Amino acid sequence: MENKLVNTNPTIQVDSAHFEPLGTWTSDKLNASRAANPFLMTWVPGSARNNVMNVTHGEGVYLYDDKGKQYLDWTSQAVCANLGHDVPRAVIETAAQQMATLPFVYGGVGVTEIRTRMNQLMAEVLPGDLRAAVFPSSGAEANEAGIMMARRFTGRPKVISWYRSYHGATAHAGAATGDFRRWYGSDQVPGYVKAFNPFPLFFNHGGNNATEEESVQAALNMLEEQILNEGPDQIASIMMESVVGAGGCLVMPEGYMQGIRAICDEYGILMHCDEVMVGFGRTGQMFGFQNYEGVLPDIVSAAKGISGAAIPLSMTACSEEIMQFFDDKPLGWGSTYQAHPVAIAVAYENVKHLLQHNIVGRVQQMAPLFEECMQRLANDHPCIKQYRAIGMFGCLDVKDMDGRNPKLQHEAAHEAFNKYKKAYAENGLVGLHRYPHIHCAPPLIITEDELLDGFDRLDRSLTVLDEALGYYDDEHRDDNQVAAAGR
């Protein structure tokens, strides 16, 4: 007898086009579906969905839209597609093998071989006595686990984190966040104290004429006084990005991270480094905190680069002492998909690829050229106030005609930035925009020729921003040309 599929719920009617192979919907079909079935866009208004491209495929450092236009991925998407858009064959094969063998097991029920392997690999990759504790799905979840870990280990409620920081959009990660995104609901979560990192926007620690050493000491003194006023025995951890990411690629000055480590040791506070954006090679070290000599945190949270963004996965690691503390008690944090075997399989092969192909060493080799290009753009464009760069991670700061900050991050972009963004796309670049910062973070596998091409595309885009901000209008053109010649 012929078997026939029976729709047991005839009230559900779906478009027959759903049963066509992926890649066969036309641009008109995609756009019509998007218009009829709207979705939200998280950190920007929902209507922004009408201004993003339909991405069809990727190759290496490039993405392509449905018109066939090529775009160089200038920020590795959200600083996460570190190996570009060609997933290594071993990643695909291991993920497929794991999916065929055992697509899922809940972490509290059983332990897979891939989890055990990944755990050992992380113990070998992490410095000191740091060990992988849990493998959540996102950076925010990894930070949530780290916060819970610190509070339960110390028995203290408060967490100190910086203004100009971002740690995720879940409740506690959002509350630890120091930029405007915590305003959307996380400010009501108790137990979080904000401090200034060494890079406040409108003042200098130690005064305008202070040396870097004096400013560092003033920043540490200010933090210590804040700790004393909050109550040292109330503070579980000091939580910070090793290199501040979305806030502008802020690399901590000499002696600052060492000073934080010393303060934590003095008052029994845990040092928690958020490596979500800069972990796994972005800065030319496996982990960002390794750029600061002698600094070893107690808790490390990582994501993004651990799987090259091919599948969601993160990691929270901790010291041996913290690990042993939880031998006879629960962490107090969990997730259904913690240690998902397919996700770990992808990350396992991704990290092995980083090691086998010396991606971290390659970043170190490319870093001088990367910084040279950053400096050239800062010198050649009057709209750029300054730049920072470490490894393959950099940021240009935009200034207006009178040298001031033309836009705070929470403010809507004005017409000059809209013109720049249009030029950015027309020049074949795609990436995140966090004005007044312009981030540069291409995939770590980019070649020298591709890197130079990317900076040339950005150069042309910045010329549009120069003009849009008024640097080359009739009144200022001659002065700026003289200034440019002087550089």
UniProtKB/TrEMBL annotation:
Keywords: Pyridoxal phosphate. CDD domains: OAT_like. GO terms for cellular component: cytosol. GO terms for molecular function: pyridoxal phosphate binding; transaminase activity. InterPro entries: Aminotrans_3, Aminotrans_3_PPA_site, PyrdxlP-dep_Trfase, PyrdxlP-dep_Trfase_major, PyrdxlP-dep_Trfase_small. It comes from the Eukaryota. It holds the Pfam family Aminotran_3. The keyword Membrane does not apply. Belongs to the class-III pyridoxal-phosphate-dependent aminotransferase family. PANTHER family: AMINOTRANSFERASE (PTHR43094), AMINOTRANSFERASE CLASS-III (PTHR43094:SF1). This is Phosphohydroxy-L-lysine phospho-lyase.
